[in-house]
Amino acid sequence: RDRDAMFLAVRAARVGRFGVGSWAQAQSMTVVGLPGNSGVRMASGGSATPPKTGVVLLNMGGPATPSETGPFLTRLFTDADIIPLGPFQQVLGKFVAKRRTPKVEAQYEQIGGSPIRKWTEFQGKEMCRLLDEMRPESAPHKAYTAFRYAHPLSEEALREMEKDGVERVVAFSQYPQWSCTTTGSSMNELWRQLKELGLEDRFKWSILDRWSLHQGYLDAVVERINEGLQQFEPEDRKRVLLLFSAHSVPMKVVEKGDTYVGEIAASVHAAMNTLTNRVRGGDFSVDAVPKHILAWQSKVGYLPWMVPKTSDTIEALGKRNSRHVLVVPIAFTSDHIETLFEIGIEYAEEAHEAGITHFKHTQGLNDSEIFTQAMANLVAGHLDSGELYSPQYKVKCLGCVKPMCRQIVNPAVAPY
C-alpha cells in the first residue's frame, strides 16, 4: 500500500511537470456515446483525438451465450499450444469439440453464458481511466480485448487498433502466471494474425507477459479472501481452510520446463504472506491465519495432469472432518465457467456429499478497485521501465521448436 502511495505521489509530480491543467481540461471533454472503450477524447479544437497508446488484454475468452459454445470449443481443441494432438490436430480437435459441445453448452446454460467479456471490458476501461490520469505523456489510452477462442478474437482487436490509428501497443496478458498453454498460445496467435493481416510494421509492441507476484494483484486476492471469510459465522472463521484452486496443466507441459506450476505456488505463498500480515495487523475480523492447501482443477482427457485434483482434495477434506472450506480461484482474474459452474455448482455438490457443511468460494477479481488500480500500475510501470518484456520471456521450454514462440514483432524503442 505504501509502495502504491509513493508511486502515485511520483506520478502526481510528473503530471504537474507535463501540465495538469491542459490535460484535466481534455479529460473533462470525454465524448459520450462514441463506440469502443475509453480512450477517445475530444480535443480543444473539437476534433476527436485518437488513442496514443493501446493496451491489448489477452485472455482465453468464453461463450457469451450458450449457442457460441461449439465454435469456442473447436478453436480450443484445434489449438496445438494447449492440447497437442499431433498431425491429426484439426480432425481430432473438431471431433472432440463436437462430442463435448452438448455437455458444455448445458453448463453455460446454467450460468447464463460466460461473463468474462463483460468483466474484461470493464477492467480495461477502468484501467485506462486511471492511466490517463497517471501517465498523461502516453494518453489517451485505450484497451482492446483479444480472446483466443471467443469473440472478440485477436484479428478483431488488431483491426480495431488499425482503424483507431494506434501506434504504440502493450500486449498485456490477463493470466498472472505464465504458461505456454495460455499466455504463450495467445502471444503466438497475436503474432500470426499480425502477419496474416499484413500489419507487422503497423504497431510498435512491448509485452507484459507475467505478474504473479505484483503486490496490487496479491492485495486484490486477499481482499476477496477477506470478503469470503465474512460469509462464515464469526465463531467459525478460525476453522476455515483456504483451498486455492488453479487450472491444471498436462504433466507433459510441466516436464518441458513450463514455469506455470512454480509461479502459481509462488502466488499462493505471497498471498498467504500478505494475508498473514493483514490478520496480525488487525485489519481483518478473524482471530487466526487460516490454514491453506493448493489443488488443481479442470483436467481434460486421459493423460496425466498436475495433481492433487481439486475434486479429490474436497473428498479427502471431507474424510478428515473439515467442515468449513473457502475455495480461492488463484489463477483467474474474472469469473467464468471454471469458477461459476465447476467450483460454484459441481464442487459445491461434491463438498455436500463429502460432508463439508460450509463450502464457499471467493468471487473473481471482476470489479475490484484494488485490481484495476493494480492493472494501471502494472502498465504504467512497464512503460516507465522501457523494458520490452520480462527477463523470462525469451526462455523457451525444453525441446520447443515452435517458430512463433517467445517472439516479438516490431518491438518498440524506449523511451515510451
Short description:
This protein has 416 residues and is an alpha/beta fold. It contains 13 helices and ten strands. Strands 4-3-5-6 form a four-stranded parallel sheet, sandwiched between helices.
What labels would you give this structure?
alpha/beta; four-stranded parallel β-sheet; 45% helix; globular
Structural topology:
Blueprint: H1 2-18, H2 20-27, E1 41-42, E2 48-49, E3 53-59, H3 69-77, H4 89-111, H5 116-134, E4 141-147, H6 154-164, E5 168-173, H7 180-196, E6 204-208, H8 215-229, E7 241-247, H9 251-255, H10 260-280, E8 291-297, H11 310-319, E9 324-329, H12 337-353, E10 358-361, H13 369-385
Parallel strand pairs: 3-4, 3-5, 5-6, 7-8, 7-9, 9-10
Antiparallel strand pairs: 1-2
Overview of this protein structure:
The longest helix has 23 residues, at 89-111. The chain starts with a helix and ends in a 31-residue tail after the last helix. It is an alpha/beta fold and 416 residues long. The protein is globular, with a radius of gyration of 22 Å. Helix 8 (215-229) crosses helix 10. It is built from 13 helices and 10 strands. Helices cover 45% and strands 13% of the residues.
Total beta strands: 10
Number of helices: 13
Uncertain stretches? 1-47
Main-sheet strand order equals 4-3-5-6
Q: Approximately how much beta-strand content do the residues carry? A: 5-15%
Which structural class do the helices and strands define?
Answer: alpha/beta
What are the secondary-structure elements, in order, as H or E?
A: HHEEEHHHEHEHEHEHHEHEHEH
CA(first)-CA(last) distance: 26 Å
What is the CA-atom radius of gyration, in angstroms?
Answer: 22 Å
Q: How confident overall, as mean pLDDT?
A: 89
Helical content (DSSP H or I, runs of 4+): 40-55%
> How can the largest sheet be summarized?
4 strands, parallel
The best one-word shape is: globular
